[in-house]
Structures are given as structure tokens and as C-alpha cells.
Amino acid sequence: MVRSCCICKSLINSFIHRVTGANTDDGKKDRRRKEIVGRLGKEMNDRRDECVSSFCSSLIPPAFKQGAACVPSGRQYTESISALHSVAMQLAARPETLPSYKLRLYPLSIERSALLAQLAVEERNSLESAEAAYELERERVEEEWKRGRDRIRERLLEGIEERRRRARDEKDGEGTVSGTWAFYSYLGGPHR
User: Residue 14: pLDDT band by 50, 70, 90 thresholds?
Assistant: First the structure.
């Protein structure tokens, strides 16, 4: 921190040298330069204290705060750093024990739970539609199988009926045909 202030002061000095033209060794200019450097240094310190104060007041646990608008001393600053370090260690080791971590994760966990519920509903719906499609396909295949079986049965029955009819026709026609054969055989066969 001290090093950065020295760097800032040297930058301020170089800027002032360029602006005021420090080539002249005038006493007034030298005094004015010192006055400006002093004011800027004081302003920078005040702003740094305000920044550190506001930063530390947001980080310091309530037990360490001594007043509403307190500027932390070195001890308070060290305590706040150690408190932040312990919080960082707790986050690294077991984040679920830190209430602020749970609070920050709450919206994400709600979103995750909603997505999981949505996925469960979609999975259930997909499963039901797959089962319904399976049942529909099974019924269609069974109907097709039954129709095919009935067609084959009808063809077989028609074939049996056709054979019976032919057999009847042959039997009925056999009397005439056999009578003709008997006649020919009686005559001694057909003559040529």
C-alpha cells in the first residue's frame, strides 16, 4: 500500500513538473507545487480511507463493527481479513454450512428443481405415449394376424370344399364313365 502511494506521488510530481514548468527554481512555484502535492496526497488518503471504510463495512461481520461510520483501524482490518479468510476456507471445505452460500444458491436450486420436475413430467409423458403406441401397434398386428389366419382358413376350407365337390362330381360321373367302360369291356374294347 505504501509503495502504491509513493508511485502515485511520483506520478503527481512528474505531472506537476510538466504543468508548472519546474525548470525554474522559483520559490513561489516550488511552494505552490508542494501545496498541490500536499492537497492531492490528502485527497487521495481521504478517498482511500472512504473506499476502505465502505469496502470493509460491507465485509466486516456485525460483531466487529463499532459504529455506523467507523474507519477501520489496523486491528479491525486484520480481523476482517481473517474473517474473510475463514469464510473462504469454509466455502472451500464445506460450503453448505454457510448461510449466505445457501441464500445465493436458493434461486439456482429452485430453477434446478423446476427443470427436474419438468423433465420428470416429460419422461412420464414420453413413457405413456410409447406404451400407448406399443398397445396400438400390438392391437393392429393382432388384427392383421387374425385376418390373415381367417383368410388362410377360408382358403383351406374352400380347397376342401372344392375337393369334396370334385370327388362328388367324380363319384356321380363315375357311374356313367364306369358304365361306358363296362360296355366297352363287354364288347371287347374299343374297335378301331
Answer: low
